[in-house]
Structures are given as C-alpha cells and as structure tokens.
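Thread: quick sanity check before group meeting

JM: Hey all, I'm pulling together slides for Thursday and realized we never actually wrote out the predicted structure for the chain we discussed last week. Dropping the sequence here so it's in one place. If anyone has concerns about the input, flag it before I start.
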Amino acid sequence: MNKKVDILVVGAGPAGMVSAVTARRYYPDKDILVIKNVANGCIPCGIPYMFYSLKNPQDNILGADGLIKNKIEVAVDEGLKVDREKKSIVTKKADEYVYEKLILATGSSPVIPKIPGIDKKGVYPIYKDMDYLKTCIEEIKNTKSVLIIGGGFIGVEFADEISKIQGINVYLVEALPRLLANSFDQDFSFSVEEKLKNKGVKIILGTKVVEISGKDKVEEVRLENGEKLKVESIILGIGALPDTKLATDAGLDLGKGKGIWADEYMRTTDPDIFAVGDCAGKRDFYTRRDITVMLASTATAEARVAGANLYQLKVVRENKGTIAIYSTYVDGLVLGSAGLTETSAKREGFEIIVGNTEGVDKHPKGLPGANKIKVRLIFSKTSGILMGGQVFGGISAGEMINIIGMAIQKRVSITELETLQMATHPYLTSAPTIYPIVLAAQDASGKV
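JM (edit): ok, ran it. Output follows.
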C-alpha cells in the first residue's frame, strides 16, 4: 500500500499521541496518521502499579481513543526506513507512507546489561507493551523472591509495589552508594531507604550483579561483593536508551547524549522531521550540556511544542532547556525534585546558597492525615535566582514541586519566593504563616 499523509507520527506513547492531538488543534485541515508498533501500549509511569495498586493491570492501558476522537488515523505497524528525498517511510508490513511533516516519537528501550545469564527465563526487562507486561506480572507473582536491579525511580517504585504482595521476598541492588542518587541529596535518599526497609525490602548498595545462574531459569545471582542471593525472578530497572535507529539510518544527527539532535522547536537537521520524547536529545536548563532525561512530562511538553510548530512557528518556546522535574511515591511518602540538587550544583561548579525548612503539610498539625514536609531550595549566591529544589512529605508535595519547577523556569529570585502569594486551607496545605517554600527562601536569604 502506498499512502500520502500530511503529518505522519511514528510512535504512540505519550509524546506521539500528544504531538498528533496538538497538530490537529493547530492544523485542523491536515491529514494525520500515527504508526504504533504495539497493539496495546501502556501508560509508562503506571507500570509499577500494575502489580498491586491497580487491581486490574489492563486499567493501565494507553488506548487510542484520544486519537480517534480527534479524527487521527492509527496504524499498528513499525517504521523500518525513512527516505528523506522521497519524504516517505517504509514499514514492516511493506506499506509506504509519503509525508509532508514527520514526527519521530520512537521512545526508548530498556538497558540490558551484559551479565552472564541475563537471557535466562525469569529475567524481565520492562517493555511498554501491555500484553508482555501482563505475562510478566502473572509470572512474577507466582515466584517467592524477586530481585530488582537499579535503585532509581522505577526500581524504587517496583520494590514498593511488589513488597505489598504477601509471600514474595524483595531484593533491591543498586551500584551507587544510595538510592535515587542522581535526583536527590543524601538525606532525601535516606528517607526512601528507611521506608523500603521498614516494608521488608532488602536493599544492597554499592555493588553490582555480576552473574545470573540456574539451569534454564533464574535460581541465583552473584554480586560484585561476593554475596550470593537465591532468587526466582529479576526485574531490570536500570534505565533506558533512546531508540534512534530509524533516525540514524536516515542520516539524522545525534547529540552527545545519544538522543536525536533537535533544536528548541524539536526540529532535527531535516526541517521536515521533528523528534520528541525519549528518542530526542535533551539539554540541561542551566549548562546546556546534553543530558539523558526520560520523563513523560518532558516528552509531552516537547510534543506540544512540535505539534504546534510543524508548518510555522506559532508557539514561541520560553523554556529553552530541560529542567528535569521528578516525583515519586513510596508507601505514602512523596518525593519531588526539580533542577539542580545541592550535590549536582556543586559538582557543576556553581556558587550556591541553600535554604531548608521542615514543617507539617496541614494546619493545625493535629488534623487527621497530617504529614511532615521538608523543602530544600538551591539558589545562585550572586544573582539569587532559584536553580533547584527538593520536597518530601504527603500528597501535597507532588504539586509543590511543580511550583518550584515553574519558579526555576521563570528564573524567580529569593525575594520573589519570600513574598510568594499562595492559597491555603487547613486540610490542603501548610499554614500561610509558615508556608514551606517561603520559609526555605527566607532561610537562604539569611545566608546571602
């Protein structure tokens, strides 16, 4: 089949779907087609919660209803080759699509470490495929022990969820000396470790898995420190790599972070091809250095920029770099991080001042469900501009980190945060007299 479309999107994860829907809004007369390489995708951030919190794993499906509602055509297929001269893509089903504008939203694939025995049955990389994941979950639930390799966000969330299932021993191995080390300072990391340990998760830090043994199926792992663990299943939560083969085969450039190079409007080195989401390169908000950040929130922001600006630059991009805003939830504890941590700021050579505060997320503190809340803000010492922040506490911390993220994006100063105007309510927030973001800013201001 040979078909001509105006806008062709390859990939139907959050970035692909949002870019297509945004393009429909800005270019209502254009034909739009999305190619998805799995029949049933899933919501990436919801994958760990398919084990326990979601009673029906199928509830985490990422359906195509939003595309169909917006009169966007969907094809279950896989793009194999881009011909930039013909402006066409040939697919696995031997179809050819000729495009005016092409958006690459090919996503990422899990890192598979080169460990002897990694190909044994019972080792589960995390693919964003609902049918694959349902099989993984069913098999893991029928084991008595699971090892999670990787102590970043996905590893921590898997450990938290699976620890809720009775009868399964959970191990978590991380090569770095602490959990969430790339996103939080030490004291924030320790709060997560304490939560998981209290739930019975056996955390092993500062070492790697060097061998997986068993006949056909996983039976034991050997660690770099010589320790051996009897386990029946392994989840790989090490991270992911951008899927860029389609782009590189077409001669498109990669950035130093190994994602597809794209400018501020997500245009690649070919003006008719855009790249968004995990497959696209990212540049740090402060240093402009290439970084690897794979978040659905970042992907959808890029997708809105690309979808709006396919034919003309209709939406001027104000955010010139990737801030990297993270949040996670571990046994009732919410942690959020935006921008630079104290550790990363010092590593980059920035002269900083740090403001800290601790309080309660309701007022008065005796209200039911009140949680301790802690806020850390990182400012440039000379300019007083906010460069990063971290929060832990109850549910309200999830939105508080978004306030901090917006303040970073708009380059808000200490003084502006000291005089922040906010809505408060006893059940929803800390008291206005001791609002944590304000107090953390005041703590930093006193150190100027």
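AS: nice. The chain is about 25% helix and 25% strand. The first strand starts at residue 2 and ends at 4.
JM: adding both to the slides.
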